[in-house]
């Protein structure tokens, strides 16, 4: 037994005893019975309700060095009515890798998180989920990456924007270094979502969209989110060197705040200049178009589609 295990087992035993004592028979639909010395459940009752052996559970609560599976710990957690934080604590004490329930991956952020990234302004800040969907952004981020900010809701994803536009119009100068890292980060998160329809559909759409993405994806490389220098080319002001820093959001493990800090005074000055511009350019110097022009075209296309839907089919 390792030193870590020897220290964790007494904590595990104490934690289970305390949590067992607070669950009454009535809480789990059992009769109180006679001569009950404590208000909580008995060990054999926890074992029965969890579908495990009485001896095994007794040894677990005594802190003995026995192995526990995630399925068994989940059953014990349900019986003891543990919340998410308590369940995670149980896993750590039992030395079982904890994987949160990610079925309902966040697609929005809490108001206080939006308030934080607004307060970070004039530094650009954004909230991504693990799939690089854009969940929230502040005003300076909108000026730095206008193509993402004005994209239709279904396309507000950093990877989709990078791989759906020509390489010359990429927002990153160091595209050859940056994109493989982003795809490797995506693959690292994908391991927790294999088989989920939303993730499988997104990956398949990117594979069909871009041979470049397919090559990077099939490399099998994996990387965690991290801080690094990003070289951003903006058609309105030129090139900026920015340090990207990822910050975890408590209570939302699949989301992160990314803040971009100028790495030199020239980049800081260019970022300040961007914030004063009303109609920004999108794309590379050769293909640059103004935001107002793009939005006007989309509005016109939407109007045409709406008119087509309201026409009498008999008149066509």
UniProtKB/TrEMBL annotation:
It holds the Pfam family HTH_31. GO terms for molecular function: DNA binding. Residues 17-87 form the HTH cro/C1-type domain. It comes from the Bacteria. Keywords: DNA-binding. PANTHER family: BLL4672 PROTEIN, BLL4672 PROTEIN-RELATED. This is DNA-binding protein. It comes from Streptomyces bingchenggensis (strain BCW-1). The lineage of its organism: Bacteria, Bacillati, Actinomycetota, Actinomycetes, Kitasatosporales.
